[in-house]
UniProtKB/TrEMBL annotation:
<keyword id="KW-0456">Lyase</keyword>
<protein>
    <recommendedName>
        <fullName>Indole-3-glycerol phosphate synthase</fullName>
        <ecNumber>4.1.1.48</ecNumber>
    </recommendedName>
</protein>
<dbReference type="InterPro" id="IPR001468">
    <property type="entry name" value="Indole-3-GlycerolPSynthase_CS"/>
</dbReference>
<keyword id="KW-0057">Aromatic amino acid biosynthesis</keyword>
<comment type="pathway">
    <text>Amino-acid biosynthesis; L-tryptophan biosynthesis; L-tryptophan from chorismate: step 4/5.</text>
</comment>
<dbReference type="InterPro" id="IPR011060">
    <property type="entry name" value="RibuloseP-bd_barrel"/>
</dbReference>
<feature type="domain" description="Indole-3-glycerol phosphate synthase">
    <location>
        <begin position="12"/>
        <end position="264"/>
    </location>
</feature>
<dbReference type="GO" id="GO:0004425">
    <property type="term" value="F:indole-3-glycerol-phosphate synthase activity"/>
</dbReference>
<keyword id="KW-0028">Amino-acid biosynthesis</keyword>
<keyword id="KW-0822">Tryptophan biosynthesis</keyword>
<dbReference type="InterPro" id="IPR045186">
    <property type="entry name" value="Indole-3-glycerol_P_synth"/>
</dbReference>
<comment type="similarity">
    <text>Belongs to the TrpC family.</text>
</comment>
<dbReference type="Pfam" id="PF00218">
    <property type="entry name" value="IGPS"/>
</dbReference>
<keyword id="KW-0210">Decarboxylase</keyword>
<dbReference type="InterPro" id="IPR013785">
    <property type="entry name" value="Aldolase_TIM"/>
</dbReference>
<dbReference type="InterPro" id="IPR013798">
    <property type="entry name" value="Indole-3-glycerol_P_synth_dom"/>
</dbReference>
Amino acid sequence: MNAPALPDTLIRILADKAVEVRERSARTSTDAIEKLARDGGKPRDFTGALCGAVAEGRIGLIAEIKRASPSGGLIRDPFRPAEIAQAYEAAGAACLSVLTDAPYFQGSPEHLTAARAACSLPVLRKDFMVDPWQVYESRAMGGDCILLIMAALSDAQANELEDVARSLDMSVLAEVHDERELDRALGLNTRLIGINNRDLRSLRTDLATAERMVPLVPADRIPVAESGLRDPADVQRMAAVGARCILVGEHLLRQPDVSAAARAMVQA
């Protein structure tokens, strides 16, 4: 079966990311960034934190920190990653997700570093991974987990990036949008399978995507429902089909009290 054509926006993002990685890796070699990664200490257990939350009867919330997005524009201003991280931790979030892409999300590595230093939660580095250099960079900046967007990667690329992450004791969240991508993601070793409810072409969200796909995730994997969750009823809807781990960002960040909003999700 031929792979579906990528949306123009994703093609543009990936092209820009490839240029960015070439420029950054020209300034810091792979050997140098790998040394920084391996000297950075042991990662926090991202997968274990989610499993622990679920075992305790809570929702495993990956609470996201991002300043802006292509679909939502500017989300939070003033934007203080450390304060947001502390608010999420106080609310009972299991993990953080921090956007580091600058052109499309107004993110930076400093946002991740500041958020992680302000709390004890494991952190997902949310970016467009296209090169092993970025995996080492993710660990060097303090990331405990990386995101692999299956729509943006070949099987060979995804396996290579996962192998590097595993060599650093990092977790991997494999993100899928449809059944074909799910089949490909199940070829990886990671237990974490993110099911994104956002259509890559229209950018609209539909929780029916996760409702359709979560039951297809094998019992030895952990489904994570992503995008479009706005209230405890949505969380309960995802839990009803087997997704007791969720990733929520924009809804939380648009609330005056992000801690109260996150607590409502955790206790749904």
